[in-house]
Specification:
The structure is a single chain. It is built from 17 helices and 23 strands. The protein is of the alpha+beta class and 488 residues long. The chain folds into two domains: 3-260, Glutamine Phosphoribosylpyrophosphate, subunit 1, domain 1 (4-Layer Sandwich); 283-451, 3-Layer(aba) Sandwich (Rossmann fold), CATH 3.40.50. Strands 3-2-4-1-10-9-11 form a seven-stranded antiparallel sheet. Strands 5-6-7-8-12-13 form a six-stranded antiparallel sheet, with helices on one face. A four-stranded parallel sheet has the order 17-20-21-22, sandwiched between helices. Strand 5 (117-121) and strand 6 (124-134) form a beta hairpin. Helix 5 packs across helix 6 (156-167), helix 6 packs across helix 7 and helix 10 (284-298) packs antiparallel against helix 16 (447-454).
């Protein structure tokens, strides 16, 4: 299915920058998915829904609209407002759409990675986009190339499209299920043809995906916050290993594997998802606030004030302050115009980017013992600067409380994390990390504490959290079908 077969494609005329993006924190967001079936304003609703998922990716955005039986694609680099104009959206008529915001992971070229992808073969058109990653990507790609497949991108979505095309089963649904059974890792997929939309989630439920309804129309999204902005009603999460099929006859469900268990990514609750989203029935803000309360129980520190590392540390800081009976204040200010990622070719310039992003409120911290709460520590660049900044602004003491366990291992399921040698906790204990930061104390929430904070086990859910980045206990094996083992 070469991409030259794509017809009726509208691509944003701005040249797509092929630079990759580095983050000063070392951990970056996943991609965001949105789909709607059966609504006359599919393009505008997809834009609004995707806008609420912008935090999951800021490197590119795309949308494929179904108008009658024609699929048309629009995509480009940058934020949604840079890709889509009012005039453009006004011209995008159709009653179904799938849409995507991109975070370009390490080494990915944005000029070929912007999704959704669109393929035409025979009388069928297939639109496809995803969030996550395959463990067996390389062996699948090599095998397909051996069969004659020609790849145009580095996207896992294209791999799945090629497998679907080769399946030759009685129905398209059976071909999708067969293809999904051949890939493993952490992923959420949206597919669309002229006849229906398909939403699928990996067998461990590592990547989130939810179903909603707007009138008679069905909506799919990475997070429930996308439903709130368009007035859709949340129905349920897509189950691990499930394929949801939506067409003009309604919604039905099938499973592509019997080996299913819930291991939702812990970092979704800690850092990635928006606070107003619910994942597996658990509100993200509530879970983060619970983590702060549990941190106070596990590591109580008497201080004058509790402050947060903005923005994802705020909920946990409020919980810690309430549990300890210490005032919560805004002690660090984030420059809103720097953005969430910073392109920098060297550690020195990356650190300069951190300095541009944060400033301390002297009247809040000067002469005081401060508890600084953050969601996680990955490379440690931001936290090291934050502690130094607070002390230079006059803080008498800085006690660090982290609402996640020590981040020791890379993620292989779609979160772009550094190599292990760049993870500050990979071969260091808490004392060594505290000394690097020059903090007066440092504490991380325990794994049991994190599970309690999220509360999935306590809601009767099967499985629970994936905490492989903290303990190296990966919920899938890491061996590629070719026999290669992903290095931890």
């Amino acid at each position: 299915m070469p991409s030259e077969a794509i017809n009726s494609e509208a691509i944003n005329s701005e040249a797509i920058n092929s630079e990759t993006v580095n983050s000063e924190t070392g951990i970056n967001h996943e991609c965001g998915l949105f789909g709607i079936w059966g609504h006359e304003n599919a393009a505008w609703l997809s834009y609004y829904g995707l806008h609420s998922l912008q935090h999951r990716g800021q490197d590119g955005a795309g949308m494929i609209i179904k108008n009658d039986r024609v699929l048309t694609r629009t995509r480009g680099p940058g934020l949604l407002t840079e890709v889509f104009s009012n005039d453009m959206l006004g011209d995008m008529t159709g009653d179904a759409a799938i849409a995507h915001v991109l975070y370009a992971t390490g080494g990915m070229k944005r000029n070929v990675a912007v999704q959704p992808l669109l393929f035409n073969f025979g009388n069928t058109s297939l639109a496809i986009c995803h969030n996550g990653a395959f463990i067996n990507e390389h062996s699948l790609r090599n095998k397909l190339e051996g069969y004659g497949s020609i790849f145009q991108t580095t996207c896992n979505s294209e791999i799945l499209a090629h497998i679907i095309k080769r399946s030759h089963l009685a129905t398209f649904t059976e071909s999708v299920k067969r293809a999904l059974s051949q890939v493993y890792g952490g992923f959420a997929f949206l597919l669309m043809t002229q006849d229906g939309m398909y939403a699928a989630r990996d067998s461990r439920g590592l990547r989130p995906l939810v179903i909603g309804k707007l009138g008679d129309s069905y909506v799919i999204a990475s997070e429930t916050c996308a439903f709130d902005v368009i007035g859709a009603k949340y129905i349920r999460d897509v189950a691990p290993g499930e394929v949801v099929i939506i067409d003009d006859n309604g919604l039905r469900s099938e499973f592509f594997t019997s080996d299913r268990d819930l291991n939702i990514c812990g970092m979704e609750y800690i850092y990635i998802a928006r606070p107003d989203s619910n994942i597996e029935g658990v509100n993200v803000h509530t879970s983060r606030k619970n983590a702060g309360r549990i941190l106070a129980k596990e590591s109580p520190t008497k201080a004058d004030v509790v402050i947060a590392s903005p923005d994802t540390g705020i909920s946990a800081a409020i919980g810690y302050a309430e549990a300890m009976g210490i005032p919560y204040e805004i002690g660090l200010i984030k420059n809103r115009y720097i953005g969430r990622t910073f392109i920098a070719p060297s550690p020195n310039l990356r650190e300069q980017g951190v300095k541009m992003k944060l400033s301390a409120v002297r009247s809040i911290v000067e002469g005081k013992s401060v508890v600084l709460v953050d969601d996680s520590i990955v490379r440690g660049t931001t936290m090291k600067h934050s502690v130094r900044l607070l002390k230079e602004t006059g803080a008498r003491e800085v006690h660090m409380k982290i609402a996640s366990p020590l981040y020791k291992y890379p993620c292989h399921y779609g979160i772009d994390t550094p190599s292990p040698k760049e993870l500050i906790a990979h071969k260091r204990c808490t004392t060594e990390i505290r000394e690097i930061f020059d903090a007066d104390s440092l504490a991380f929430i325990s794994e049991d504490g994190l599970e309690e904070a999220v509360g999935i086990y306590h809601k009767g859910k099967c499985g629970g959290l994936c905490m492989a980045c903290f303990n190296g206990d990966y919920p899938t094996h890491l061996q590629d079908f070719a026999g290669e083992v992903v290095q931890v």
